[in-house]
Amino acid sequence: MKFKKFMALGLVAAMTATLFAGCGSKGNDSADTTQKSDSASADGLVSYSDIVLGETGKDLSATITMFNHRTDMDTDDYGGKNWKSYLEDFNKEYPNIKVEITTDTNYADDALTHLQSGQYETITMIPAVDKADLSTYYMSYGTLDEMSQQINYANTWL
């Protein structure tokens, strides 16, 4: 049960964080959308630690893509909560964000091909790449010290 909740939260956090990385606004000085100067980077992106689930980005509209290896969750007869159910819950909070999910039985190889081509999806499961190369493909959520305050088991992949 905890795994399912963690998976759901992880999916929503990843979708939300990725959305803000791609849809950050620059130079918007209106009182309604001005971000705190100490929480937004110089390019106007929202920091992961500042995202409030169900509040931050409610006005955004986008289509994002997710590529993953969980082909079992792509079926209606999956024994647990499937991708369709997760997306229904996500769209209750963020109705203007369309998520297109692609699953792949050859994910390990195909994910690397996607990353190396430079044409990869908005969200991916972390494939088998060297840890030193992760920053080439993925945005940083902060230092280990910063993330350890927000994410359980942040230091398990050292």
Give the secondary structure arrangement, pairings included:
Layout lengths: L1 H22 L38 E7 L14 H11 L3 E7 L3 H11 L5 E2 L9 H4 L6 H5 L10
Structure classification? alpha/beta
Largest sheet: 3 strands, parallel
CATH architecture of one domain: 3-Layer(aba) Sandwich
Total beta strands: 3
Rg calc: 16 Å
Q: What fraction of residues sit in β-strands?
A: 5-15%
CATH class of one domain: Alpha Beta
Secondary structure: helix percent: 25-40%
Please give the alpha-carbon distance between the first and last residues: 26 Å
Query: So how many helices?
Result: 5
Order of helices and strands: HEHEHEHH
**Envelope shape:** globular
The largest beta-sheet arranges its strands as 2-1-3
Write up what this structure looks like.
- It is a single chain.
- The chain is α/β, with parallel strands linked by helices and 158 residues long.
- 34% of the residues lie in helices and 10% in strands.
- The chain has a domain at 46-128: 3-Layer(aba) Sandwich (D-Maltodextrin-Binding Protein, domain 2).
- Strands 2-1-3 form a three-stranded parallel β-sheet.
- The longest helix has 22 residues, at 2-23.
What's this, in brief?
This protein has 158 residues and is of the alpha/beta class. Helix content is 34%, strand content 10%.
Q: What brief labels describe this structure?
A:
three-stranded parallel sheet, 158 residues, 34% helix, disordered N terminus, globular, 3 strands, D-Maltodextrin-Binding Protein, domain 2, alpha/beta
